[in-house]
Structures are given as structure tokens and as C-alpha cells.
Amino acid sequence: MGREVRRVPANWEHPKRSNGQYIPLNDGYTKRLHDWEEGKSQWEKGLYSDFSGGWEPISEAYRGQTWEEYDGERPDPKDYMPDWPEDERTHWQMYEDTSEGTPISPVMPDPESLARWLADNDASAFADMTATYEQWLATIQRGWAPSAIFSPATGLISGVEAKL
């Protein structure tokens, strides 16, 4: 992706390394763990995902591999954001998620405040590109934006700027 809004508690402070840099964290540990365990179970039956909700026999190219070789090690909760209950996710924060995910904004009480902060502070929509309040708000309402989009008509623009 590129930019992703995450719902967080009001007092959330994204963890930092001793040098002050944010520690990248994925979102969605519970779902990822469930998907990994289901995939491993199916793999042990000789099946893998057809990526449309079904399962098909493991192709010859992957036979002989373990599930971990194919999909990676079991997800580790330390690599993920906490899975707070929905009623604790009262605030909003914008993340870059091209890698695992680090915040590009402070925690804000509502989408409008977050969009205003992002626009007023020239937050990066992609590389050195910024975005307007309206573009940030549309991204927040959608929940995400790709890093960038290229078309012959517009050239390279940020996913936040694009009208998706």
C-alpha cells in the first residue's frame, strides 16, 4: 500500500528504538495468525490457497517445501500493533505501510483533525509529495491509499492525491 489510517486508543504511543526511531509494526495480528494457521493446516493436507477463498493441490513448484518455507515463520506478536478491543480504538493515526508501518502523524480524536494536521504539516503523501485537506480526508475515509499511481494523463502522483 502506502498510507493507512489505523484506529488506536487515545493514549497510544508507538514504540521507538533507543535512538528515537519508530519500530515498524504490522497491523492485524489476530487475522494474520488465523490465516497462517489455516494455511499450515491446509498445507499439511496437500493444499494451498487459490487466492479466491478456496484451496487447490500444491503445485509441483512448491512440493517438498515446508509451510514455513512457503509462507514464512509463524507471526510474532512483537511485530504487530496491539489488537485492542474495538471500543478502545477511539482515535485516528496515519501510518506509512510500505514496509511494516510507522506513524506519520500524532494520534488525533477524529478524521477531520487528522486530515487538518496532515495538510497543515505537509505530511508526506509519497516521497516529497504532500496533499490537501480534502485529499487526506478522502484517504482517511477510505482507510488507505497506494504509494503512488502513474498514468500518461497525470504522470506520477501520490495515491493520496489520486481519486480512487
Question: How would you describe this structure to a colleague?
Answer:
There is one protein chain. With 164 residues, the chain is of the alpha+beta class. It has two domains: 77 residues, no CATH class; 51 residues, no CATH class. It is built from four helices and eight strands; from the N terminus they run E-H-E-E-H-E-E-H-H-E-E-E. The strands form three sheets. The chain has a four-stranded antiparallel beta sheet. A two-stranded antiparallel sheet has the order 2-3. The chain has a two-stranded antiparallel ribbon with strand order 7-8. Strand 4 and strand 5 form a beta hairpin. The radius of gyration is 19 Å and the shape is globular. The model has no long low-confidence stretch (mean pLDDT 95).
Task: Present the secondary structure layout.
Elements: E1 2-8, H1 29-44, E2 47-49, E3 55-57, H2 67-71, E4 91-96, E5 102-103, H3 111-120, H4 133-142, E6 144-146, E7 148-151, E8 155-158
Antiparallel strand pairs: 1-4, 1-6, 2-3, 4-5, 7-8
Helix pairs in contact: 3-4
Provide a brief overview of the structure.
This protein is α+β, with helices and mostly antiparallel strands.
- Structural class, please? alpha+beta
Shape: globular
Report helical residue fraction: 25-40%
User: What is the number of independent domains?
Assistant: 2
Largest beta-sheet characterization: 4 strands, antiparallel
Number of helix segments? Answer: 4
> Which residues form runs of ≥5 with pLDDT under 50?
none
Record the strand order, biggest sheet.
5-4-1-6
Question: What sequence of helices (H) and strands (E) makes up the elements?
Answer: EHEEHEEHHEEE
- What's the number of extended β-strand segments? 8
Strand content: 15-25%
The value of Rg in angstroms is: 19 Å
Separation, N- and C-terminal Cα atoms: 13 Å
Query: What is the overall pLDDT average?
Result: 95
